[in-house]
Amino acid sequence: MSRNKQKDNLYDILEVSPRARPEIIDAAYRVLMKQYHPDKNNGDDRVAKTLNEAKEILLDKKKREEYDESRTNLIGKIIDNYRVLELIAEGGFGKTYRGEHIKLETPVCIKHAHYVSPQDEEVLISEAKAIWDLRHYGIPAMRNIVKLEDSSLALVMSYVPGPTLEKIVSQAGKIDAENVSWITERTLNILKYLHFNGVVHGDVKPQNIIIQPETHNIVLVDYGLSVIRPSLNSSSKGFTPYFASPEQEKGSPVVPESDFYSLGMTMIYALGGDVINKKVPSSVPDPLCHFIKKLIVRDVLSRPNWEKEDLCETIQDLRVKVFGRKHSGMKPIGGLK
C-alpha cells in the first residue's frame, strides 16, 4: 500500500465507521458512486477512483485486516512529541500504549481512539475536558490531545504503573477486608475531589482502578463516560453491566451517588462476593457489609451524599472500629506476585 493510501482514512472516504459490516460498506460505496461516477453529469473520475480503491480493500477480509493493523498499530511510531513503545491494553474505543516524550524520555500513556467514528469523537474530547485542569495524586494528568494523519484521535496522559484491581483479583483471588477498606478510602478521596470539581466519573469498576501495592496508592483512570456538572438534561453515555447504577442503565443522568453505587459493587467484586446478585460474602465484618449495602441501594435518593455524610471520614472510622487502626501499615495483598 502506498504511503498516501496509508495516510487516507478509507473509512472516512466511504463515510462509514471502522466497525461497519461489509454490507454497510458496500451500500455506502454504491450510494457515493451514484453521485461521483464518471458517466454522471457531475461525476468526478478522481473521487470515483478513490472510492473504488477504498471498496477493494475494505470488502476483502484479508486486505481489510492488514489495513486495520497498519492503521491502528502505533508501536515504534512518533505522535507529536511522543514515541510509542508498547501496547498496554485494547478495548472498545481502541488501544492504549506506553510511550515516552522524545526529548525528556519521561513515560506517558497514549490512548489511541482508532475505532471512534466522527459521531463518537466527542466522547474522547469529553474525557480530555473532564480532567484537563484537575490535579490529584489519584487522577492521571492530561498532557495533550493529538489528531493523527488519518483523523483519529490520541489522548496523551501521565503514565501510571501498576496492575488494575481486576488483574489483582484474577491473579490473587479475593482480597481481604482490610485491604479492600484502604482501597475504598483512597477511591472515595478521589471521588470527593472529582465531585467537588463538578465531575462525575461514570465508570467506577475494577478495570479502572490501578493499584500500587508497594505504596498503597490507587489511581482512578478512564474518564470516557464522565459527565461535567450534570443536569436534568444530561444523559448516560454508556455503562458497564453489574457495576453501573440502575439510573445509569436506564439512560438517566449520572450523579455523584451513581459513582457510590459503582464503588459498592466494586467492593463486592474485590471481596470475592456475588456481583450478579449483589451479595457480600458472609465473612465480611458487619460494619463493612452495612457500609457497602447503603452504597448500592436502588433508589439514588436513599444513597449517601456528600452534604449529609463525609464518606471518607465514615470509612476511616470504620477501619478503626473493625481493624483497630486507620492506617494500613503497608499490609501486603495476599497472593499477589
List keywords for this structure.
six-stranded antiparallel sheet, 12 helices, two-stranded antiparallel sheet, Phosphorylase Kinase, domain 1, 337 residues, alpha+beta, Transferase(Phosphotransferase), domain 1
How would you portray this structure in words?
The structure is a single chain. This protein is α+β, with helices and mostly antiparallel strands and 337 residues long. The chain folds into 3 domains: 68 residues, Helix Hairpins (Orthogonal Bundle); 81 residues, Phosphorylase Kinase, domain 1 (2-Layer Sandwich), CATH 3.30.200; 159 residues, Orthogonal Bundle (Transferase(Phosphotransferase), domain 1). The chain has a 6-stranded antiparallel β-sheet with strand order 1-2-3-4-6-5, covered by helices on one side. Strand 5 and strand 6 form a beta hairpin. Helix 3 packs antiparallel against helix 4, helix 8 packs antiparallel against helix 12 and helix 10 packs across helix 11. The radius of gyration is 23 Å and the shape is elongated.
